[in-house]
Amino acid sequence: MPILERLLNAVDTISLRSGQAVSLLLLPIAGVMVFEVIARYGFNAPTIWSTEMVVMLAGTVYIIGGAYTQSLRGHISVDTLYDYLPARWQAITRAFLHYPLFVLYVGVLLWAGTKFAWDSFAENEHSGSLWNPVIWPYKFVVPLGALLIFLQGTAQFIRDVRALITGEGLTVEVSEEIEPEL
């Protein structure tokens, strides 16, 4: 297997494994929420930490899970005309229209996220709430997630360009249509 293919497969594996790993955080999120509801309404003893904990865990799932979603081409897109294009034009659109915009978006997210995380680390930033946890580790999740999303998007870009050059792997992607029920 050529080295490029191994690298692309490694990126896919990282996206898959990171998505699987953070999906496990959904269990503690649900557990904390159930605990809070029971404590608040069953014992009239609400916690000071549950809301922040859930936000931090769910934010981690959201941003790290982005690479997994990217690997499935599952992010929301406006594809009114795109679905009707031939496979070659879909690949051209992805490679030369979507990818530059993607790089701009993820580049800003990576740059700004790293700056915010580093500033937070330098200040040993706390949330300022009653619980007042240290939040710089959570802020480093943003640039990490952006890096993972960038790697996956770049792997897809390389595959699209390769498909355009070789003609192999060109398939028409059809989004799932949802028919309104009357």
Topology:
Layout: H1 3-23, H2 26-42, H3 50-71, H4 87-123, H5 136-139, H6 141-166
Description:
This protein has one domain (3-166). With 182 residues, it is mainly alpha-helical. The mean pLDDT is 89. The protein contains six helices and no strands.
Quick summary:
The protein is mostly helical. The chain has helices at 3-23, 26-42, 50-71, 87-123, 136-139, 141-166.
Tally of individual domains: 1
- Give the number of helices: 6
Percent helix: 55-70%
Oligomeric organization of the protein chains: single chain
Label the overall shape. elongated
Derived structural class: mainly alpha
**Gyration radius over CA:** 21 Å
What is the percentage of strand-forming residues? under 5%
Name the average pLDDT.
89
- Count the E strands: 0
N-to-C order of helices and strands? HHHHHH
Low-confidence stretches: none
Termini separation comes to 52 Å
Q: Report the sheet with the most strands, covering strand number, pairing sense and barrel closure.
A: none
Notable characteristics:
single chain, 182 residues, mainly alpha, 0% strand, elongated
